[in-house]
Amino acid sequence: MKFSTKGRYALRMMLEFALHPGECTKINQVAERQEISDKYLEQIVTILSRAGYVKSRRGAQGGYYLTKDPSEYTVGMILRLAEGSLVPVTCLEDEVNPCSRSQNCATLMVWKELDHAISHVVDGITLADLVEEQKRLDGQANYYEI
């Protein structure tokens, strides 16, 4: 399974907002720090804003900020918003109308286990966890730069 740049960049953008609590972060700041096109980030922030994950503030001190505490966002929430379903195969997407072969498909077990594992990982990591990891990495980088 591969995640698109939209999902990866949405996660990185949300992390940038979480790293600067109480501040508004401008798209061009995220673009510069993350080395991502600001035009692409504008498209992604629209998705995040429509979902209520971020809000904007106009003006010289304006930008975007998280609407909730970073601990209330999981990686899974952000990826599902940007990517859509994370299930590894389409036959798992519709539980109401399962695949006609589901009763006789031994491989279905593999896809269900994989789906469970993916969900367990992405739903078990919060934006707050990523903030702590980023701070750890930044501290490590500063230590080695001396």
How would you briefly describe this protein structure?
The protein is mainly alpha-helical and 146 residues long. Helices cover 55% and strands 5% of the residues. The protein has one domain: Arc Repressor Mutant, subunit A (Orthogonal Bundle), CATH 1.10.10.
- How many domains? The number is 1
Secondary structure class reads mainly alpha
Average pLDDT, to the nearest integer?
A: 91
Topology, number of strands? 2
Shape: elongated
**Strand/helix succession:** HHHEEHHH
Distance between the termini: 39 Å
- Poorly predicted runs of 5 or more residues: none
* Oligomeric state, counting identical vs distinct chains: single chain
CATH-defined architecture: Orthogonal Bundle
Q: Helix count?
A: 6
Descriptive notes:
The protein is mainly alpha-helical and 146 residues long. It has one domain (5-145): Winged helix-like DNA-binding domain superfamily/Winged helix DNA-binding domain (Arc Repressor Mutant, subunit A, Orthogonal Bundle), CATH 1.10.10.10. It has helices at 5-19, 27-34, 38-50, 75-83, 108-123, 127-145; strands at residues 54-57, 63-66. It has a two-stranded antiparallel ribbon. A hairpin with a 5-residue loop joins strand 1 (54-57) and strand 2. Helix 1 packs across helix 4. The N and C termini lie far apart (39 Å). InterPro entries: TR_Rrf2-type_CS, Tscrpt_reg_Rrf2, WH-like_DNA-bd_sf, WH_DNA-bd_sf. Keywords: DNA-binding.
Layout of SSEs?
Elements: H1 5-19, H2 27-34, H3 38-50, E1 54-57, E2 63-66, H4 75-83, H5 108-123, H6 127-145
Antiparallel strand pairs: 1-2
